[in-house]
Structures are given as C-alpha cells and as structure tokens.
Amino acid sequence: MAPAPNAVAQMLGLLGDEWTLLILQRAMLGARRYGDFHDELPVSNSVLSARLASLTHDELLVRREYQTRPPRSEYLLTPRSRSLWPMLTSIWAWEQRFVDDHPQPLPAMQHRMCGAVFAPQVECRACDTPVSDKDVLAHWGPSGGWDRCIPATTTRRRSGARRTPAAELFPQTMSVVGDRWGFALLVAAFVGLSRFTDFQNQLSAPPGTIADRLTLFTGEGILLNSEGRYRLTEKGRALFGVLVCALTWAQRWFPAPDGPAAILTHTGCGQRFLPALTCDQCRNRLRGAQILAV
C-alpha cells in the first residue's frame, strides 16, 4: 500500500496550483462573488467553477447564499485560508525586492502599529532572533520522506500562452511557486539537492518536468547552474520566508497521525523552529490586520 500523503503533499496539492493562489489572492483583496473572480482573472468558466468547488471542499473558502430569487452565492475566506497571510506577505516582500517587471509597481507595506513602511523579517518564535535559511536545520519527521511529499492531484499548470501579467499581483512568484513541481523542486534545493538526477530520482518526476522547472528557475535568477550543479542564488535563498511560512501552515492544518513531515531546528537556540514575522522598523510581531498597502 502506498504511504499516505503528508502535510507537505497536501500543501503542494492545494497551493501548488496557480489558479488556486490567484483566487485566494483575489479573495484576500476583497473578491467574493463569482463575477468578481471572473472579471479580475483571465480564467474560463469551467476552471473557475472547478477551483471554487475544490476550495470550498478543502475549507479554504466557504460558500454562502446571499440571494434566493434567483439563487446567488458568495465565497468567503475561512480561518484556514486567512492564516495564509504570513506566506502571502512574504511573497509580497520578495516581489518588491527582487522583481522589477510588474505591470504596475507594487504598493509598499505599512505597519499600522508603528506607522512605518516596512519589510517583514523572519524570526524564531522561541528566542525572538532574526533567522535565515543558514540558521535552520531540517530533517524528516515521522511522516516525512519524498515519497510522502508528492501530491496526489490532477490539477494542471496554467499554460504560459494564457498568462496575463496585468491580472497578477505577484507574477514571478506565481510562475515559480504556483506550480506543485516547482514548489517541490525549490524545497529540494533548500535541503541540499543540486544535480538533475537527484531532483528527478528524489521527486519521482518525469525528466521533462524537472528540465522545464530548472530552466524556469535559472531564467528567473533563482538558481545558478554551475558545471551541472544547481545552486540557490541570493534571490532564491530569499524565498526562505515563503517556504517556512507555507510549511508551518501545512503542518498546522494537516497534521499526520504519525507526526510531522519535517522538523526544523534553530541552531542559535537549539529549539524547534517556528517562524514569526516581525516589522523590521519597530521589531514588533506582525498581524495580518496590521498590514496596509500604501
């Protein structure tokens, strides 16, 4: 019997899809009704209906009827989807710092508590110390292993021919993180894989899939290919906050009966690492409701 998918697999199956991320993005910006999503995204009726149904099934949105004659419904965020704000805030900050080709400049982030324009900083929740990927050790937990991290999903990546950058707030992140194999490959790079055959064997992905994602990552400057080894660049390592916030979200909402998929340890204090986002200006911990676009 195949091992049960763990929290990482469930996260990749849910969030490693570009349309899902775009719909949740729009919902956090205020979209509620079917027409809102259809007007703001270059999506077909069939794809939009399917994603809204799956998001409702997975408790990322809740469907509420607001009119009976004729019947009309709206789609509202749930506690599960609202708690994605650290991941989305990290994406926002990464795009501001590293991506210049937005159709319109991204707004700055203002911290309501101190009034300053800020960038989020990742800290260890146990010792309140700023951390980077170099300060955190990762090893598999009881439900870990690459074989349990591969999502069982049939969702297909959105074709580049249909991409409409003007409809995307985070175009480069969506092209990299908004794809289950791209997300999995990025995680693999953070834990030390660097060769084409290692990515292929560990992720059990077709060679063409691995080649496509590696080409994308190197083209975007996230990986550097040096003599057949793919290394994370500064830009790639800066995605650390996105990944640890996504992993923390996954293990909170999809715990496995036999234990966590991955265990992170902060080398500075020796404690289990859980990320906290703080304001780099006042050093206070952030809350989603305290972040304003200016």
Automatic annotation (TrEMBL):
<feature type="domain" description="HTH hxlR-type">
    <location>
        <begin position="4"/>
        <end position="103"/>
    </location>
</feature>
<protein>
    <submittedName>
        <fullName>Putative transcriptional regulator</fullName>
    </submittedName>
</protein>
<dbReference type="GO" id="GO:0003677">
    <property type="term" value="F:DNA binding"/>
</dbReference>
<keyword id="KW-0804">Transcription</keyword>
<dbReference type="InterPro" id="IPR036390">
    <property type="entry name" value="WH_DNA-bd_sf"/>
</dbReference>
<dbReference type="InterPro" id="IPR002577">
    <property type="entry name" value="HTH_HxlR"/>
</dbReference>
<keyword id="KW-0805">Transcription regulation</keyword>
<dbReference type="InterPro" id="IPR036388">
    <property type="entry name" value="WH-like_DNA-bd_sf"/>
</dbReference>
<keyword id="KW-0238">DNA-binding</keyword>
<dbReference type="Pfam" id="PF01638">
    <property type="entry name" value="HxlR"/>
</dbReference>
<feature type="domain" description="HTH hxlR-type">
    <location>
        <begin position="164"/>
        <end position="258"/>
    </location>
</feature>
